[in-house]
Design a protein that fits this description.
Blueprint lengths: L2 H28 L6 H25 L6 H26 L11 H25 L3 H30 L2 H19 L1
Protein name: Putative manganese efflux pump MntP
GO molecular function: manganese ion transmembrane transporter activity
InterPro entries: Mntp/YtaF, Put_MntP
């Protein structure tokens, strides 16, 4: 392996960590809900899978799609996170309402898509640069899975310390992260 190849892998690893930090931050908030370890394992695997699928689609379409699409996906991801977070905060105050977005079924798909949309944009740019696709995708998937697990487990621990206020904090984290995506 040449120094250039090692440098490329290290660069891709740092990119994977940067993309996975979205999943970590959002999972921290989502982990504050009463989520079982079995569900945490599944959520991490699904998010890891989406961190492989989304950049792969982006890489495939990288040379055919303009950069305006990347900004559109960022907007959608930010709005989804704000919506999920706001719903968590409102449901903490109104105990009669059922949670609309939970990390199961369609809620899990929305959750996975919202944290992996930025990897689609990265995939677009990687598709134009001719990077080693398989290495990039594997790193993106593995790192985001591990960071999701870490965020959800840490969120679960914080929930035990904060009790009923943890859902408000978790929703606030999701809203803040979504607003950061939209305006940061």
């Amino acid at each position: 392996m040449s120094v250039y190849q090692i440098g490329e892998i290290v660069s891709l690893l740092f990119m994977a960590i940067a993309l996975g930090m979205d999943a970590f931050s959002v999972s921290l908030g989502m982990g504050m809900q009463q989520v079982r370890l079995k569900r945490i394992a599944l959520i991490g695997l699904i998010i890891g899978l989406f961190h492989i699928i989304m950049p792969f689609i982006g890489i495939l379409l990288g040379q055919a799609i303009s950069t305006q699409i990347g900004q559109f996906t960022t907007l959608i991801g930010g709005l989804l996170l704000v919506g999920i977070g706001a719903q968590m905060v409102f449901s903490a105050f109104n105990h009669d309402t059922k949670k609309i977005v939970q990390p199961v079924g369609i809620g899990l798909l929305f959750f996975a898509i919202s944290v992996s949309l930025d990897s689609f944009s990265v995939g677009l740019s990687l598709g134009m640069s001719g990077v080693k696709t398989m290495i990039a995708l594997m790193l993106f998937g593995i790192v985001s899975t591990v960071l999701t697990w870490a965020g959800m487990i840490l969120g679960k621990k914080v929930h035990g310390l904060l009790g009923v206020y943890s859902e408000i904090l978790g929703g606030s984290i999701l809203c803040g992260f979504g607003l950061n995506i939209l305006f940061g």
